[in-house]
From TrEMBL:
Membrane topology reported for the UniProt record: Multi-pass membrane protein
Transmembrane domains' residue ranges: 26-47, 59-78, 155-173, 185-204, 216-235, 256-281, 301-324, 349-372, 378-397, 409-428, 434-453
Main localization category: membrane
Alphabetized UniProt keyword annotations: Membrane, Transmembrane, Transmembrane helix, Transport
Any GO CC annotation of this UniProt entry: membrane
Protein name: Amino acid/polyamine/organocation transporter, APC superfamily
Cell location: Membrane
Source lineage: Bacteria, Bacillati, Bacillota, Bacilli, Bacillales
GO molecular function, one term: amino acid transmembrane transporter activity
InterPro entries xrefs: AA/rel_permease1
């Protein structure tokens, strides 16, 4: 039964105040922008093109389906985040409700999600950045430093991908206030770019391009929904900021729901305009669909602005992903499941300094050396598994501790959590077999670490 020993919520709150706590500096607005910073990036600037090839103009429905799955899970996240305002997100919630073994699995799962998401986006950022350098200044990096081995002929190391992760790591290590300000400015710029695209592109929409609306039927819509789910990954990183939020009971639910709602609306509008300008088949093999739509419309000047917005968009995604990663690592270390050095807080910056630099360097090296082709799906399956367990956790806690004071309550329990579980499992079922195999391998590695180190060094084991 030691596998399912639980941390009491009161004990979690007490332990978070014993010298290893983080600075509280985030409000509703900051959390909303943190969520938007994580969501609007690769999804809107890259995956819209791939998704339209799979679903046609019906990609709008794919985004809605993915948003519903995320929205249902967000309501479960909001209850836990307000109840347990501690770093660690789904890992911490699982520890309090489902036990240590499940918490380790979900924490290890989230390590995969955030780490590979950061690395994946850094490679996309590198491509846009190199195009911008070439277009503005005519500069071209040596081929050896433009990609990972195997990504292109002569490539050895993706230097821009590595360097951007190092810059973000430096920002995060300096403190949440500096990271917050940087994120807020970049989010404001990239949202402005998206709104400019909507304002300009709406004038060039040809409704005939929306016919047929479902060229590949419902199956194409569902396959695209599993793919573009990556576009929403990151909103759950808002929950990881619980310990640095001024008023978690009020601000966290608002930040989660507001950021998800705003981004879903933008995705729907942008997808409709994009597929209205360019026939969906023309997006095959295109990694800059929004720029392509503007070029087809004859608005080349705006296409350059979009490229800049894409760079900023991906930067904020990496910032929030690496931020969430470090907070989960911090929580797992504080609980004894990882070496204690990862939960040491810098006396001046009040950040998990060592964990931030360790994870930043690992993410940077992965982006520099590994060509990342199918990692979007691998990140998706990890996130969907986390969402499923959080929803299960709400059901368990409502049954085992019904009288807990809940500042925010998930509505219509058990129907909303059950619907979230069903939606997430359905989307997981649409992912490729190779994705499941890689996911199982990662979990096996995690089990070996748990039984050889974490179980013995757990704080609960010592207690």
């Amino acid at each position: 039964m030691s596998l399912f020993r639980k941390r009491s919520i009161d004990k979690l709150l007490q332990d978070s105040q014993k010298g290893r706590s983080l600075k509280r500096d985030l409000g509703t607005w900051d959390l909303t922008l943190l969520g938007i910073g994580a969501i609007i990036g690769t999804g809107i600037f890259v995956l819209t093109g791939q998704g339209s090839v799979t679903a046609g103009p019906g990609l709008i429905l794919s985004f809605i389906i993915s948003a519903i799955a995320c929205g249902l899970a967000a309501l479960a996240y909001a209850e836990f985040a307000a109840l347990v305002p501690i770093s660690g997100s789904a890992y911490t919630y699982s520890y309090a409700t489902l036990g240590e073994f499940v918490a380790w699995i979900i924490g290890w799962d989230l390590v995969l999600e955030y780490l590979l998401a950061t690395s994946t986006v850094s490679v996309g950022w590198s491509g846009y950045f190199q195009n911008l350098l070439q277009g503005l200044f005519g500069w071209q990096l040596p081929t050896a430093l433009t990609g990972a081995p195997g990504a292109k002929e002569g490539a050895i190391f993706n230097l821009p991908a590595f360097l951007i992760v190092m810059v973000i790591t430096f920002l995060l290590s300096r403190g949440i206030t500096e990271s917050k300000r940087t994120n807020n400015v970049m989010v404001a710029i990239k949202v402005t770019v998206v709104l400019l695209f909507i304002a300009v592109g709406a004038n060039y929409v040809k409704p005939d391009n929306w016919q047929p609306f479902l060229p590949f039927g419902a199956s194409g819509v569902m396959d695209a929904a599993a793919m573009v789910f990556f576009a929403y990954i990151g909103f759950d990183a808002v929950a990881a900021a619980a310990e640095e939020t001024k008023n978690p009971a009020r601000d966290l639910p608002r930040g989660l729901i507001f950021s998800l709602g705003i981004c879903t609306l933008l995705y729907i509008i942008v997808t409709g305009i994009m597929t209205g300008i360019v026939p969906f088949g023309d997006f095959k093999g295109v990694d800059h669909p929004i720029s392509l739509a503007l070029q087809v419309a004859g608005q080349d000047w705006m296409a350059g602005v979009v490229d800049l917005g894409a760079i900023l968009g991906m930067t904020t995604v990496m910032l929030v992903m690496l931020y969430g990663q470090t907070r989960i690592f911090f929580s797992m270390s504080r609980d004894g499941l990882l070496p204690r050095r990862f939960s040491k807080v810098h006396p001046k910056f009040q950040t998990p300094f060592g964990a931030t630099w360790f994870l930043g360097i690992v993410a940077g090296l992965i982006g520099g050396f590994v060509p990342l082709d199918r990692l979007a799906e691998l990140v998706n399956i990890g996130t969907l598994a986390a969402f499923t367990l959080v929803s299960v956790g709400v059901l368990v806690l409502r049954k085992t501790q019904p009288n807990l004071k809940r500042p925010f309550r998930t509505p219509l329990v058990p129907f909303v959590p059950l619907a979230a579980i069903a939606a997430c499992i359905f989307l997981m079922s649409r992912l490729a077999a190779i994705t499941w195999i890689a996911f199982v391998i990662w979990l096996v590695i995690g089990l070996l670490i748990y039984f050889t180190y974490s179980k013995r060094h757990s704080t609960l084991n010592k207690d």
